[in-house]
């Protein structure tokens, strides 16, 4: 974002974008660790055991976060093959679930039911439901930025990183849509299915309840375990991306105590201090569900929103401010880049706006969508930090291949642009 904005506003732009990306990645980690405990609880219920208490599930969430931190503290070369294995397992796991649901479902919905029938349990008008109906699918459309955060550790990053981002977009769309279709075709009557799950206490997520409806025993338990394995590797990969964006922000002095957080453990070449900070920070949010479950649910709901805003800012700048001066890299979308950027920015900001809407009527304190509070709080913290301190010293991302001089926007990369800028030694550590 800092390279796409004019020199005057580049520091503020990348400062805001970085904070949204940071909070989006942190909340994604918390969502995945909490989701791991929830799915494990579902596996316990399916196997005939009693439901785990909130306290036990919280402990499991924190424990799995610790395991992810430990894994991410390994040497970078070891992490490489682990993440490759994680990718294969996640795609393969979804493929197995989809095949089993299509092949073994007791009853299947017709194509007409899936694509033309509707179910409105919100209390809002139908047109409103059409808008908020896209929200559940947005979680699969996130994580594209992970390749950019890991670019410094990637061979041939100029080509491999953008290819990875494009590949992630395509893979997320195909895998996500296929999984959702498999679930929908496994539910002959959506209304009776939802009402039955609510009457039974709603302890199982709708996905796990779909497994129980569609597949004979012990199929639901096996599919749930497979989903649990997928969540484990997804959380591990998510924390890797979060640790890298956190380290980058600490390296640029954006986070408090940056001088400590940017420390690298040389034997493994990993940001150990950042990983410890993230474990403590995310664990504190996981403990929130013990005292304020509504606030915790609101926190989880804001994960995709924070990421979408951080994606939307540079994409919008690409097709507006930097439309005539954006320097293409070794791999690009060519002439399709500009129209795709226009469509993408419109999609990102429209769906981000929709994510502020409440999902049930009448709106109460229990079902209110508190995403606006989380995002507003993030903006408030970032704004106060900027006004009080950061605006006096933050000039944007620093170079890592030459020196620590802040990068300048593409349209201002000339000798005159460097006049009046402080040297790298005067940039706040």
UniProtKB/TrEMBL annotation:
PANTHER family membership:
AMINO-ACID PERMEASE BAT1, OS04G0435100 PROTEIN
Tagged with keyword Transmembrane = yes
The molecular function terms in GO held by this entry are: transmembrane transporter activity
Cellular localisation = Membrane
Which InterPro entries does the record cross-reference, listed alphabetically? Answer: AA/rel_permease1
Its placement in the membrane is given as: Multi-pass membrane protein
Keyword line: Membrane, Transmembrane, Transmembrane helix, Transport
* Organism whose genome encodes this protein: Rotaria magnacalcarata
UniProt name for this protein = Amino acid/polyamine transporter I
Origin, by domain of life?
Eukaryota
Instruction: Name a single GO cellular component.
Output: membrane
Q: Which residues cross the membrane?
A: 81-105, 125-144, 165-187, 221-241, 272-292, 298-319, 340-361, 367-388
């Amino acid at each position: 974002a800092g390279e796409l904005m004019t020199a005057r506003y580049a520091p503020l732009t990348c400062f805001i974008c970085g904070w949204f990306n940071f909070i989006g990645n942190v909340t994604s980690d918390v969502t995945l660790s909490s989701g791991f405990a929830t799915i494990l609880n579902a596996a316990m219920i399916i196997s005939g055991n009693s439901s785990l208490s909130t306290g036990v599930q919280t402990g499991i969430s924190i424990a799995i976060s610790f395991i992810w931190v430990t894994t991410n503290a390994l040497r970078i070369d070891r992490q490489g093959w682990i993440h490759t294995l994680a990718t294969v397992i996640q795609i393969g796991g979804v493929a197995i679930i989809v095949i089993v649901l299509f092949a073994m479902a007791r009853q299947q919905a017709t194509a007409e039911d899936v694509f033309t029938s509707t179910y409105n349990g919100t209390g809002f008008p139908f047109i409103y439901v059409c808008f908020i109906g896209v929200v559940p699918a947005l979680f699969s459309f996130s994580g594209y930025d992970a390749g950019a955060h890991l670019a410094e550790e990637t061979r041939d990053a100029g080509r491999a990183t953008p290819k990875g981002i494009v590949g992630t977009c395509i893979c997320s769309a195909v895998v996500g849509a296929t999984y959702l279709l498999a679930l929908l075709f496994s539910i002959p009557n959506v209304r009776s299915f939802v009402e039955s799950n609510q009457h039974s206490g709603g302890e199982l997520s709708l996905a796990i309840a779909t497994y129980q409806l569609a597949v004979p025993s012990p199929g639901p338990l096996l599919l749930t375990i497979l989903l649990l394995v997928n969540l484990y590797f997804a959380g591990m990969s998510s924390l890797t991306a979060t640790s890298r964006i956190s380290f980058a922000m600490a390296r640029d002095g954006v986070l408090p105590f940056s001088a400590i957080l940017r420390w690298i453990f040389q034997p493994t070449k990993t940001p150990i201090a950042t990983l410890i900070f993230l474990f403590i920070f995310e664990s504190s949010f996981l403990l929130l569900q013990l005292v304020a479950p509504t606030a915790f649910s609101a926190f989880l709901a804001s994960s995709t929103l924070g990421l979408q805003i951080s994606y939307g800012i540079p994409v919008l700048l690409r097709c507006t401010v930097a439309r005539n001066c954006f320097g293409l890299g070794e791999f690009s979308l060519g002439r399709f880049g500009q129209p795709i950027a226009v469509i993408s920015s419109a999609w990102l900001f429209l769906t981000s706006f929709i994510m502020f809407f409440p999902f049930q009527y009448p709106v109460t304190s229990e079902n209110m969508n508190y995403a606006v509070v989380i995002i507003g709080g993030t903006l408030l913290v970032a704004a106060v930090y900027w006004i009080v301190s950061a605006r006096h010293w933050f000039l944007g991302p620093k170079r890592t291949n030459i020196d620590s001089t802040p990068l300048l926007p593409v349209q201002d990369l000339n000798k005159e642009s460097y006049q009046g800028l402080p040297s790298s030694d005067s940039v706040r550590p």
